[in-house]
Design brief:
It is found in: Mitochondrion matrix; Mitochondrion outer membrane. With about 375 residues, the protein is α/β, with parallel strands linked by helices. It has helices spanning about 1-10, 70-75, 80-90, 160-165, 170-180, 200-215, 225-230, 245-250, 265-270, 290-295, 300-320, 335-345, 360-370; strands spanning about 30-35, 45-50, 60-70, 105, 110-115, 130, 145-150, 150-155, 195, 215-220, 235-240, 260, 280-285, 325, 350-355, 375-380. The protein has 13 helices and 16 strands.
Length: about 375
């Protein structure tokens, strides 16, 4: 599918579609927004959110059928990462006096293309698509959202919009960590021993399935009440972190070729000792101080401190014979193309904890805030998915 995307974007292969005007001009739409950072009371429903506009020729407007929540939505609601995200939104500081508010949260979308920019040839109005919208853009808890064409992919045919909305953000985060940063792929995973810390969350459940699809041996760490789910997803060994000292339990197992850490904290102090030394074994963590450093220290000092931290840790562990890496969510339509193929072939399925209606967004945030979810919290923007 990714190759097909490249072919269809090649010059002269497909006529460029022009901008498609909607039947009736729209200036406002229903959305859930925040006007300041804080806890759940800052969420506000409005019918007067500005309708998205295509500013660049490669953009599309998507009518949102379903969205879902991720931990980053809780963090962004509270102001986490605001310094870095505002710099990304306006790097030259041209919008003096303007703020990011009203801000729409939500990263995942499954819906239907409504309008296309002049440079979009891969999609047309009416196509069913899915995407993960980067956190510096307006989010998906809205009737419509605008996205770059290279962030969008055709929705897996076997999934409803509700099911599809559970996968893009966690799927791309895991894909970034395992494939783009970790270097794992379908041809080099057979027989490799993979450890996934925090295996019952959104990223963890996707990572377990992806590694099994690529024929790896997967050891998953989660709580006992999630063990049945994680085993069902294909994990070979499931370790209950509450049943005793986790480090000691893992030390009784053979060493690993790769560790994906969704937990962070004190785990990092001992987890790298579980890797095979001088064999190319890699530890990748999704818990990094990058945004925190920028919030606390400002852009320049925050970036400097982050660079020093990752550089020193990388060198320290390289001298011990293992690779240390950080990974982040990266929007990518071509990667979603590959994920869609795995979904349609039955190798990956969405894991949904609970589904809420569009009027229940605050309740959905409270559910996510309560923790210990088994899969994703999904929002049906259009009912009857």
């Amino acid at each position: 599918a990714a190759g097909g995307r490249a072919l269809r974007w090649a010059n002269g292969r497909v006529p460029t579609r022009g901008f498609r005007a909607s039947p009736r001009a729209r200036v406002a739409m229903p959305s859930w927004v925040i006007d300041r950072y804080g806890s759940n009371e800052v969420l506000r429903f409005t019918r007067e959110m500005m309708f998205p506009i295509i500013h660049f020729p490669n953009e599309v407007i998507i009518k949102v059928h379903a969205a879902s929540l991720n931990p980053i939505d809780l963090s962004m609601r509270s102001g986490y990462g605001a310094t870095a995200l505002n710099m990304k939104r306006d790097p030259l500081k041209l919008k003096t006096g303007e703020t990011e508010f009203p801000l729409t949260l939500g990263r995942d979308v499954s819906g239907v293309v409504m309008e296309c920019g002049l440079g979009v040839s891969y999609f047309k109005p009416g196509d069913e698509v899915w995407a993960a919208i980067p956190p510096w853009k307006q989010g998906t808890l809205s009737e419509f959202v605008v996205a770059s064409g290279n962030e969008v992919s055709f929705k897996p045919k076997c999934l409803s919009h509700t099911e599809a909305a559970a996968l893009p953000y966690v799927g791309l985060t895991a894909w970034s960590a395992l494939n783009q940063v970790g270097g794992l792929n379908q041809s080099n995973c057979s027989g490799k021993r993979i450890l996934i810390l925090g295996a019952s969350g959104g990223v963890g459940t996707f990572a377990v399935q992806l590694m099994k699809a690529w024929d790896a041996h997967v050891t998953a760490v989660c709580s006992h009440d999630a063990s049945t789910l994680v085993k069902k997803l294909g994990a070979d060994d499931v370790i209950d972190y509450k049943s005793g000292n986790l480090e000691e339990q893992l030390k009784t197992l053979p060493l690993f070729d790769f560790i994906l850490d969704n937990v962070g904290g004190s785990t990092e102090k001992w987890a790298l000792d579980l890797l095979k030394k001088w064999s190319g074994a890699t530890y990748v963590t999704l818990v990094t101080p990058f945004l925190i450093n920028m919030d606390k220290l400002g852009v320049a000092d925050g970036m400097l401190q982050t660079g020093v931290t990752v550089g020193s840790k990388t060198l320290k562990h390289l001298l011990k014979g293992v690779h240390y890496r950080w990974a982040f969510f990266m929007p990518s339509g071509p990667s979603l193309d590959e994920i869609a193929e795995l979904v349609d072939s039955g190798k990956i399925q969405p894991v949904i904890d609970e589904v809420f209606s569009f009027s229940e967004v605050p309740e959905a945030f409270l559910k996510l805030e309560g923790g210990h979810a088994r899969g994703k919290t999904v929002i049906n923007v259009i009912s009857r998915q």
